[in-house]
């Protein structure tokens, strides 16, 4: 039996019925939590598929952000306001607003439309715990091939073009307390407890706290939930047949327990939590009938999701059409240039680009050199011209064959040296200046320049290969608009 990829199991040897020694393997335990790894935590959808209320656990988010208990400390109190207590929704949205990575346009929109600020807070919380990863975007005109577009009808009622997940993640990672901007913020639950002992309240920003609890969900499972580890912090955001209100209460309990106090009575305690210090409120399991009435998409949301999916598909078809037209224009331009240069179609590749004929086989070049028809540089040594340009063969001007009587010799001219063709400039110089004495001065110009791809334009010649590449869609894809 093969071993589990992440668990090493040691079996005990035993004797089989025929006396043959064999292995007895203990059964591999199945993880009891609702998710088996962080890879299965993010929402998985195809491009343009809407995120339903069940995907985002809309009822859970609504219970969290609609809680009206003023029990959290405002890290940025308003001058003259003696009451420094706010709700969780106000705390979370204020933390996003004061993030250095939050743009001015986004801040203005949050101030002008409080409903948009709440929707942004809900999407940001899903990104905070890892349910929405950085491959998602929420506007249909997104071009990059590294992300997928998804409409979120229940969380895009005020503005269809929400921020994409990478920008939200950058905003979250820089959302720290004023005292944490110059110091290293806490990163473990034990550090948060130490700050509570010292009376530092709040211990960290609410965004950083969510990151810490998400990263330490497994070891904290038996601390705050059941002793069997069947439930942890991340399971609060996973679609499961459990009460959304109870999960929201357990989430807010964690926020108060680590931000405000772990010794005082928690305002989100239930009877079980009051009788069991350090334990989160219990979460009821729903019957199938009760589960069916939670996270139900409205007809308007379904219609809007289909509309945005069609708009996305239309945008992609238009993008592909523009890319094809661009490639057609390039092919026509290349064909026109080749015709003007008199390029043989046999020298073109399948894309219509000219095949570089500058470098020939070294043995052939050597033979041609003996015949006086071409002079080339050293043999190519292999390797990429970009990674090792010094190994490129030296480009040298083509020297036409020399007629009889136009060779330069040394000595008595009786064939003591092989005949070498003169460069045209050298030939013109000899006509204007007759040779002195009985021997002629051997003139030969070798023009050596940069590697072929970086050579000046005048040294490239008509055989320069135009470089084009990229797939049909990815070549025209750019970054997401601001």
From TrEMBL:
It comes from Pterulicium gracile. One of its GO terms (cellular component) is Ino80 complex. This is Ino eighty subunit 1. InterPro entries: Ies1. Residues 1-50, 364-439, 454-482 are annotated as: Disordered. Residues 405-419, 467-482 have a biased composition (Low complexity).
